[in-house]
TrEMBL record:
Keywords: Oxidoreductase. This is Pyrroline-5-carboxylate reductase catalytic N-terminal domain-containing protein. InterPro entries: NAD(P)-bd_dom_sf (IPR036291), P5C_Rdtase_cat_N (IPR028939), STEAP_metalloreductase (IPR051267). It comes from Saccharopolyspora shandongensis. Transmembrane segments: none annotated. One of its GO terms (molecular function) is oxidoreductase activity.
Amino acid sequence: MRIGILGSGNMADALGTQWTRAGHHVMVSGRDPAKARALAERLGPSARSGTFAEAAEFGDVVLVAVPYSAVADALTAAGAETGTLRDKMLIDCTNAVVPDRFTIDLPTGTSMAERISHQAVGARVVKAFNTCHESVWRLTPPVFEGRPLVVPLCGDDAEAIATVRTLVTDIGCEPADGGPLERASLLEATTAFMIGLWFRGVDAQAMLPPQKYGTGG
Ligand SMILES: NC(=O)c1ccc[n+]([C@@H]2O[C@H](COP(=O)([O-])OP(=O)(O)OC[C@H]3O[C@@H](n4cnc5c(N)ncnc54)[C@H](OP(=O)(O)O)[C@@H]3O)[C@@H](O)[C@H]2O)c1
């Protein structure tokens, strides 16, 4: 698969490393060509670097991996308003989390994923990989006490969901059906809440009962 990545920071590095190892071709991009080039060199021969527009053009799948406050500008630089992302499968891993307060910097009930979907005309957006720290996405594999990490996906396009499920499996995780894109706001808010717990030293995983108790036993 050809994967364009908007960004050349931590998430681009973590997921780009995993996906090139799994045999995919990756193009990382950024506002600093030297940084993007250095990352591509680190990722190896199946990786290259380019501009945001080149990465959007390159990928069958495009990962948005810039800070939430930079997403609109990065998408514009990628040509979103001119249709460069039309029909592309777009993965949104962003979190609009306010540092220290662990609230969401968006109007209630809205999501980064839906914003991206509105801006990137015709793109098939899937919310994924936003739930864990980048260090988790670097694990080979992200398996804890014998259980592969579950990665919830929200999206409206069946082919895009199926493709992202493959990319989740490729890194040793287990995809889960999170429902349509309208539920991305819940996934984003849940993630912000969990990050707040983790920063307070609470084991967020421990607040959930086993599945058999989830709907009343
Ligand atoms: N880090 C995590 O643990 C984690 C986990 C899950 C989800 N996420 C989400 O993933 C996204 C990327 O996070 P990250 O940790 O990879 O961030 P990062 O390491 O700071 O990298 C961000 C990338 O975006 C670029 N960028 C920053 N501001 C920009 C701007 N105004 N215009 C264009 N490009 C800009 C950076 O370029 P420069 O290098 O030139 O600054 C860099 O290439 C964020 O939305 C974050 O919420 C992060």
